[in-house]
Amino acid sequence: MPRHRVLLWVVSLLVLMALLPACGDDVRGPGASSFEGLVPINESPPQPNPEELALTYEVGYGDERTQWTVTVSGRETVHGTVCYVLDTAIEGSPERLRLQGTAEVNLRPVGEILRRDVSTLDLIESKSSVIAFGTLPVDTVKTFAFAGDHGAPFSVGKEWSYEMVSKPSMGAQTVSTWSARVAAIEEITVPAGTFRCYRIEHSRSAVNGVVVENPTTDLIEWWSAEGLFLAPVRIEDRFTYAQAETRELAAYGAISKETAPPIVEAPSDAGRLLAGSAWEDFCDRLKAAGKIVLDPAVSVSEQDQAEGYRHLLRLLWVSMNELMENNDPLRPYLTRYPNVPTRIGHDNPDNVYVGGPIRGDQTYRLTGTIGSNVFTSFNVYTGFIGFDSYESLRTVSSLNSEEMAINPDGSFEIILSPEPHPGNWLKLEPDARILVVRKLFYDWGNETEGTLRIENLTAPGTPAAPLDPGAMARQLDDMARFVESVASFFVGAHYAKFVSGEIPPNTIPPPKVGEMAMADPYNRTQWGHFKLAPDEALIVEFPATDCLYTNFQLGNMWWESLDYRTRQSHLNGFMSYLNADGIYRYVVCPRDPGVPNWLDTEGHLEGTMYLRWTFCEAAPEAIVTRVVKFDDIWDFMPADTPFVTPEQRAQALAARQRAFDQRFRP
Predict the structure, then answer these.
(1) Options 2.60.120.1600, 3.40.50.150, 3.20.20.100, 4.10.91.10; which CATH number does 503-663 get?
(2) Angle CA(254)–CA(256)–CA(259) in degrees, nearest 5?
(3) What is the pLDDT of residues 148-198, one digit of tens each?
(4) Which residues contact 205 (CB under 8 A, 6 or more apart)?
(5) Which CATH number does 3-254 carry?
(6) Cα separation, 572 vs 257, whole angstroms
(7) Exposure check for the chain: N or C terminus, fewer CB within 10 A?
């Protein structure tokens, strides 16, 4: 063959080879060539192991289109089931609108981790992460329990049911019952090509025990009939957001070691501190946390915004105490918190809070005296609310002054240990981290406080190691995260309870055992949210009940107690006036109306309320509220209600200040 013909033949062959997709390249939809990405219906092309595939989805919401990438990071055993772990990387996703009660909530997805049964491909657990309201991180963990034969292998007509428990880091848990049905096998075309798929339709039949009338198809998944992927080819989600969200497979390809990003070794914690970057990161995160204060749903007034910045600084003070100064569970000591000067999560004005770090594998002895205060409780917790993951928080063990053995002179001893101990004992488990003691005062002017001391019996008399750069870097990280996460947590709680419409303004639902993590297990509590015009007041009424203790306090939008030293922003049952008909009547407003049970809002027209009933035979079954004009308040007061003059109010406030100063004396 002439040389020029050989050369022409070789060039033609090279051109043809260049047109063919290389083995291991991404398979993409129409755009490069008319056949690229097509998968024959009746035969399966050679495929890499599905666990080694990266799947890119085109995600649609409204007019927006973004790309999400799903990769398999490994296998884990979850609730006794071996699962694939699928990580979803989300870049630049637009906000979605979700209807939360009567409120509209904007959410921006930022990440998702799915754990699917390796046998059935059903979800066993998922964790989705979003940014709510522009700044608030919220994680939602969903767990799934199935009945009967479920999931893969699929066949047309196969049906099953399952229960989904959704636990958001902010807001209430939801339990829903679902049914699934393999409706058809059909050919669908997505950007990655044409596939034969099983169409699986999911419908909710009940939510929190309430049956869904006329259920509709809420979720549709299309799974490859050839079992090519560990995730659906297409998803249509009609229930999560106000509009449907679609996910369509846009590309898939084997993860290549050659194309994987190089592994860059992160600097050590000590290196970050010595280079100054740990301190810079700390300052940058505190600066960014300031955006939380600008949330218009919480910073309703200029006063709210000023209190918001103070709130961040108070949280920083707590973090310094808890995470830097008194953070050694081998050598713990007890400190007062969160009040004076810090306030967190409707801290109780009647309490002295005392706490310290502990560890589940140690043994401690707590000694002291019980004062004349009305009640003292001892609680072991697994972490700090807002800082640690909400689903991990729980009460490990509890003890109180009504049940424990106390010597005639008021002295006592409590052992905290993993193994049972005779006498007063608080059980420790491996995840035990914090001891919190609440000393509850009723008669501020006369009750006295006892003493407390803790010592570690496992490692007595051992000196702490000198501070090293790595430990200091980690403390800076933790303190910044504490400020960010705790502030975000209570903003999220405010949205979940009040902005969502779950508890309408100026109403208080019946009390129940404290549902929030780290609540005192001996309390029944309830929240409320007052929202008034300048000429209005809120009247709150409930009957006296057989309880050791009750109180009613006001808080600001950041869920802090108001000034209870110089203002009557709270009253307990001992301080409150009980009308002859056995009803407590409180008036919430900024101006003093002269009623005994006036609660001073400290200038706020909008804020929060918190009520407690401790060690009760029964709490009130209903709490009556009504908004009235300020000038009409006395029309709703019984005839036996005394009028409090300005002079009498000043005397009461002076006595309150003296009692406060005595309780928190140096």
Answers:
(1) 2.60.120.1600
(2) 130
(3) 899 999 999 999 999 998 887 765 678 889 999 999 999 999 999 999 999
(4) 161, 177, 178, 179, 211, 212, 215
(5) 2.40.360
(6) 67
(7) C
